[in-house]
């Protein structure tokens, strides 16, 4: 923005931007920098002059946030959305630690966000901007097509809310509903427990074994799905040493990277597949077939 043109501010004409800065006792270079970054003249000056709250002028948003009931980030969102300083500073973010929405009680904003499948950051940001809970939910429904489900005469806003209430895995419930089961069938049919034996001890499920040996359920389940025995799935190294010499189909390579360079394979892809528990020769075969 040119410094030589006359400018109007609050009904007064100034010969140049520098004259305006001097008259308002704000730093000229900072004013120009804010204008160059897209701020309007009004916004740039307000930021430089500070924020007035209850008769006190706060030199920055950071200083103002120290007397605010909401965070610095939230305060900034509100002011950029056009809120006046008093409302932005004094309006609480959350509707309360416990609140009722559509007849369902929620212990926190987090539980509300989980129930409707909305990111907590999104809910907080929209609450910051003054959105009602109804508007937040309706916006999510319009975006994702989420519909309410009814079980035993009780209405739930989402499948996630139902899964949480009845204590069933969300992925299992969603998969069952997608396969054509009714809501009652999806909830009431017992989840099959797959027993496994390891080192002479019987475990009621893969999840129980994973907990006992200090593995993640997903990691152990993936290894078993790839055809590994229970013993190999549990004891296979979790860390693949990239500098270790390896042998594949009778050929010795200085390292996994050396193997990938010579065979034209993706190094990161190879390591990822090995971590899932697949044997090296099977991984190499699959990758070569994909490339052919």
CA-to-CA gap between the ends? 58 Å
Arithmetic mean pLDDT: 76
General form: flat
Strand order of the largest sheet: 1-2
Q: Can you count the beta strands?
A: 12
Main sheet makeup: 2 strands, antiparallel
Q: Please write the string of helix (H) and strand (E) elements.
A: EEHHHEEHHHEEHHHEEHHHEEHHHEEHHH
**Gyration radius, rounded:** 30 Å
Low-confidence spans: none
Protein described:
There is one protein chain. The protein is an alpha+beta fold and 292 residues long. It folds into four domains: 1-49, no CATH class; 99-188, no CATH class; 196-235, no CATH class; 246-291, no CATH class. Helix content is 51%, strand content 12%. It has helices spanning 17-24, 28-36, 41-49, 61-65, 72-80, 85-90, 109-116, 120-128, 133-144, 159-166, 170-178, 183-188, 206-213, 217-225, 230-235, 256-263, 267-275, 280-291, and strands at 7-9, 12-14, 51-53, 56-58, 99-101, 104-106, 149-151, 154-156, 196-198, 201-203, 246-248, 251-253. The chain is flat and about 85 Å long.
Please name the defining characteristics of this protein.
single chain; 292 residues; alpha+beta; two-stranded antiparallel sheet; 18 helices; flat
Give a short overview.
The protein has helices spanning 17-24, 28-36, 41-49, 61-65, 72-80, 85-90, 109-116, 120-128, 133-144, 159-166, 170-178, 183-188, 206-213, 217-225, 230-235, 256-263, 267-275, 280-291; strands spanning 7-9, 12-14, 51-53, 56-58, 99-101, 104-106, 149-151, 154-156, 196-198, 201-203, 246-248, 251-253. With 292 residues, it is an alpha+beta fold.
């Amino acid at each position: 923005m040119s410094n030589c043109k006359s400018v109007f501010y609050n009904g007064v004409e100034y010969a140049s931007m520098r004259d305006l800065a001097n008259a308002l006792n704000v730093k000229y270079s900072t004013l120009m920098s804010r204008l160059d970054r897209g701020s309007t003249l009004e916004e740039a000056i307000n930021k430089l002059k500070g924020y007035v709250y209850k008769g006190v002028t706060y030199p920055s948003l950071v200083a103002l946030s120290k007397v605010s009931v909401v965070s610095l980030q939230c305060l900034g969102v509100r002011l950029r959305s056009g809120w006046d300083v008093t409302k932005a500073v004094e309006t609480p973010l959350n509707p309360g630690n416990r609140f009722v929405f559509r007849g369902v009680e929620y212990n926190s904003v987090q539980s509300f966000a989980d129930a409707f499948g909305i990111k907590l950051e999104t809910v907080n940001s929209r609450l910051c901007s003054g959105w009602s809970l109804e508007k937040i939910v309706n916006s999510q429904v319009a975006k994702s097509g989420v519909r309410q489900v009814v079980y035993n005469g009780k209405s739930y806003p989402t499948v996630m809310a139902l899964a949480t209430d009845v204590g069933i895995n969300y992925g299992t419930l969603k998969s069952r509903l997608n396969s054509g089961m009714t809501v009652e069938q999806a909830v009431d049919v017992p989840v099959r427990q797959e027993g496994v034996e390891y080192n002479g001890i019987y475990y009621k499920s893969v999840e129980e074994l994973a907990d006992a040996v200090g593995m993640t359920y997903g990691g152990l389940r993936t290894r078993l799905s790839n055809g590994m025995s229970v013993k190999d799935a549990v004891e296979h190294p979790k860390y693949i040493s990239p500098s270790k010499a390896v042998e594949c189909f009778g050929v010795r390579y200085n390292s996994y990277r050396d193997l990938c360079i010579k065979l034209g394979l993706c190094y990161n892809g190879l390591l990822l597949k090995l971590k899932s528990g697949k044997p090296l020769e099977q991984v190499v075969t699959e990758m070569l077939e994909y490339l052919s």
